[in-house]
Design a protein that fits this description.
two-stranded parallel sheet; alpha/beta; 10-stranded mixed beta sheet; TIM Barrel; binds S-adenosyl-L-homocysteine; about 350 residues; 14 strands
Length: about 350
């Protein structure tokens, strides 16, 4: 039995059609799930009893459990328990422009980035589309808020779980569903090129962010093993294609690691690397964790790096720091929980 939250509107329409029902029922069910937010099929009062019984036979409507919640100024971090008792995180950030949720896409991660806490615990499984959707529903309910922005930057590599991630995006983007605008959704990848190709081909309208973190292959190979499979020159080529096809601006994420990738020469190399692309670079102050040797760059170093990029005419922002008190590093809450601390 599948969970009803895994279904896109189109999936539900086909389901009803193949059961001899009008496809409009799918819109009604979506309305109950995502506008009225009921938690049982019995509450769907405009749907006939026999249809409700059939839905109950064919679908579960299980939700995810909040097992831990940590709060800091403008940030709430959640640890969720899934049906099979696996754990993932979601982080809610309160910006002046709205509430943004950082969603996990996998239980653990196989990308093995050297600086990242999530990857210390290898991937156990993909999250289903519904398990991503439920992170939004659970937090909106818990805090009585609406989430306006979603970033797929929690635990996991979205393009290592492509199909479920795309279904998730369809469900939350649908005007009949949670209705979060495509421009308010950002998917972040370490650079899995075949999936970026697919993403371009599918004509997705959501924002694309690339975790870059290095200005040359040697350094990127050390920090991100995926670079040995998909090196920078290939990555840049596919991003040019992305730009050509979509006319959209790409975001590069660049964590600043003290003495590793934060020197002036790195900034100059970086500006040459991205030259000609419609992009901007989001500089990320590193969230230190006790298990990983890297240290964050000093404020002065971050500003110097920023200035060098500016001087070289690269669009650049510095990411606001959220909740270092709440174990904000990706995967930190889960890793500590799993390791029994
Ligand atoms: N796998 C995807 C999305 C999840 S990681 C990706 O690689 O983009 C989301 C972002 O957080 C990535 O840019 C990642 O490199 C960054 N990140 C991981 N650990 C971090 C830490 N300790 N401090 C700051 N950013 C971190």
């Amino acid at each position: 039995m599948r969970n009803i939250y895994d279904y896109t509107l189109e999936d539900l329409e086909s389901y009803f059609l193949s059961n001899g029902e009008k496809k409009f029922k799918a819109v009604q069910v979506f309305d109950w799930l995502y506008k009225k937010r009921v938690t049982s099929f019995d509450e769907m009062s405009n749907i006939k009893k026999d249809v409700i019984e059939k839905l109950k036979q064919d679908f579960t409507m299980n939700t995810i459990k909040i097992v831990e919640r940590q709060e800091d100024i403008d940030v709430v971090k959640y640890l969720f328990e899934l049906e099979d008792s696996m754990k993932v995180e979601g982080v809610l950030m309160k910006h002046d422009y709205g509430n943004s949720l950082c969603v996990s896409t996998e239980v653990g991660c196989n990308m093995g980035c050297a600086f990242c806490e999530s990857g210390r615990l290898k991937k156990k499984r993909n999250l289903s589309a519904g398990e991503m959707v439920m992170q939004i529903l659970a937090i909106e309910k818990d805090l009585s808020i609406r989430i306006s922005h979603v970033v797929l930057m929690g635990i996991g590599e979205p393009f290592d779980n492509y199909e479920n991630v795309i279904n998730f995006i369809h469900i939350i983007n649908s005007g009949k569903g949670i209705d979060i605008g495509a421009r308010h959704i950002t998917v972040s990848t370490c650079g899995i090129i075949p999936k970026i190709k697919e993403f371009i081909k599918d004509g997705n309208q959501v924002n694309l962010a690339i975790s870059l973190h290095a200005s040359n292959n040697k350094l990127r190979n050390e920090l991100m093993p995926i670079n040995k499979v998909y090196p920078l020159e290939d990555l840049m080529e596919i991003l040019k294609e992305y730009e050509k096809e979509t006319n959209r601006r790409i975001t590069f994420e660049y964590i600043l690691l003290d003495g590793i990738n934060d020197k002036e020469e790195n900034a100059i190399e970086l500006s040459k690397l991205v030259k000609g692309l419609n992009c901007y670079i989001n500089l990320i102050p590193y969230n230190e964790t006790s298990h990983i040797k890297y240290k964050k760059s000093s404020k002065e170093q971050i500003l110097k790096f920023y200035d060098t990029l500016k001087k070289n005419k690269v669009g650049v922002t510095i990411r606001r720091e959220f909740g270092s008190k709440v174990m904000a590093a990706c995967g930190q809450l889960r890793a500590n929980y799993e390791e029994g601390k």
